[in-house]
Amino acid sequence: MALPAVSSLFRSALRSRVVPAANLMTKPAKENITAGEQAIAMTAFFVAILAPSGWILANLESYKKKE
């Protein structure tokens, strides 16, 4: 059927595409972040993401009720 033709078309399109190399430059950090600051930041991220999800899952039955 047409599947091999489409497959070869995609393969040739990917092969001919030239992606320029990223021009990245790295420098040392201006301020060092301590392990305590990292722990506080990670805790804040986890709470911000997981607390609302946990609340919804804990109260899922009340959300299902039709009132």
TrEMBL record:
Transmembrane regions: 39-58
InterPro entries to which the protein is assigned, alphabetical: Cyt_c_oxidase_su8 (IPR003205), Cyt_c_oxidase_su8_sf (IPR036548)
Pathway this chain belongs to: Energy metabolism; oxidative phosphorylation
Organism of origin: Characodon lateralis
Similarity comment: Belongs to the cytochrome c oxidase VIII family.
Main location: mitochondrion
Membrane recorded as keyword: yes
Pfam families: COX8
Membrane topology note: Single-pass membrane protein
Gene3D superfamilies the UniProt entry points to: Cytochrome c oxidase, subunit 8
Domain of life assignment: Eukaryota
Location(s), subcellular: Mitochondrion inner membrane
Record key words, sorted: Membrane, Mitochondrion, Mitochondrion inner membrane, Transit peptide, Transmembrane, Transmembrane helix
Name of the molecule in the record: Cytochrome c oxidase subunit 8B, mitochondrial
